[in-house]
Amino acid sequence: MSNFEERLLRELQSLVVAQPVDRRQRRSLWRGPRLVLAGGLAAVLAAAVSAGVFFLSAGTQAAYAVTKNADGTVTVEIDSISDAAGLQAKLQAAGVNAVVQYLPAGKACKQPWFTPAGAGAVGGMHESEVWRTSDGSTRFTISGDLPSSTTLVITTQTGPGGARALGIAWAQGDVPPCEVVDAPAGSGPLGGPPADGGAQSGQG
Amino acid sequence: MQELAEITSDPNAFERFYREHVEAVQQFVARRVDDPYLAADLTADVFVAVIESASSYRRSRGEPVAWLFGIARNVVAGERRRKAKELRRDARIRGRELVDEDDLAALQERIDGESAARELYRDVIRLPASERAVLELVALDGLSVGEAGRALGIGAGAARVRLHRARRRLRSRLDLLDLDRSDLPEVTT
């Protein structure tokens, strides 16, 4: 094989090795939620760098993890849409200003809810990444030096076919309490256009 | 058959899978893009997607190569939809950073060798999406109609109908490329 192919093999093998043992064990116990990355919301979230909307299937077990890494970044992994208060507390304990607002099916927060953070204001968020893991959960890493005026917002809506969408965005300044209203027809989780338009299905 | 689920957690199993399929994936990509660096990126993206998806592979979804080409199609289609470079920075492995001068020549050679297929691809991508998908996998990538259907999650009958329609639309183009008889076989599933 060429040098490129050999180097690529080594990089890929590091991904295989990097999967923690506990995740493999958990996968064997239950089928993780299926996640679909919705591309249609990109314009709505243009100011929210590396934010997005992710569909998780309903009915999975409560699970999330917040890990403070040695380099100061914080890795968040969400396996199912439950225990918003617990996740919010974990994030805040890790030094991340966060509002986690999970909503019942058919409900939304009244818009405008918060002021989206501009890309410039978010700074280190450019390095953030959002991944669908092999068992379908959502994982992203947050820069450790976010401005204190920035708040991570994680919320939901019910998507096509009853799948629940996990929306991740960044707010500038405080996030007021969510005023729960009936979701307007055709709205996305953060008040934008439907998230199903142009959805890009992950393999799995 | 190798258990595909193993490749998500066993580096040796992954290596076997990779060595078996890396050339096919690179040819698949070279039939669609003419930039060697982008080809390197997409090759990396395809195998990352394989690692992320292999645990959910089911034999009922087709042979591994059909499943692999289904993934590769999604990756390349995703690249076409991707706006400029905004999401490229999120790639887990940046294939182009692994390319040296010798690799560049090899990548370019592969791309040059697939120029006729790429020309066909440019015509094919103007077909309706459902027909395009079947024709791509059969005419460009050499899957049987049945395998193409399984890669796309549709039945062989539906795949056959879509292929027939696509062939009709492209007939003049395919005649020019002399692909109508040799590369679009009568359907066997």
Oligomer: heterodimer
Q: Mean pLDDT of chain B, rounded to whole units?
A: 80
Quote the distance from N terminus to C terminus of chain B.
20 Å
CATH topology of the largest domain in chain B: Rna Polymerase Sigma Factor, Chain: A
Over the alpha carbons, how many angstroms does the gyration radius of chain A reach? Answer: 17 Å
CATH class of the largest domain in chain B: Mainly Alpha
Shape, per Cα inertia axes of chain A: elongated
SS field, number of helical segments of chain B: 8
Strand content of chain B: under 5%
Please provide the ordered H/E string of secondary-structure elements of chain B. HHHHHHHH
**What would you call the structural class of chain B?**
mainly alpha
Q: Beta-sheet strand percentage of chain A?
A: 25-35%
List the total number of helices of chain A: 4
What is the total tally of β strands of chain B? 0
Biggest interface reads: A-B, 34 and 41 residues
What does this structure look like?
- The complex is a heterodimer of chains A (204) and B (189).
- Chain A is an alpha+beta fold.
- Chain A has one domain.
- Helix content of chain A is 19%, strand content 28%.
- Chain A is built from four helices and twelve strands, in the order ααββββαββαββββββ.
- Chain A has a four-stranded mixed β-sheet. Chain A has a four-stranded antiparallel β-sheet with strand order 3-4-8-7, with helices on one face.
- In chain A, a hairpin with a 5-residue loop joins strand 9 (150-158) and strand 10.
- The relative contact order of chain A is 0.23.
- Chain B has 189 residues and is an all-alpha fold.
- Chain B contains eight helices and no strands.
- Chain B has helices at residues 11-30, 36-53, 64-81, 101-113, 115-124, 129-140, 145-152, 156-177.
- The two termini of chain B are 20 Å apart.
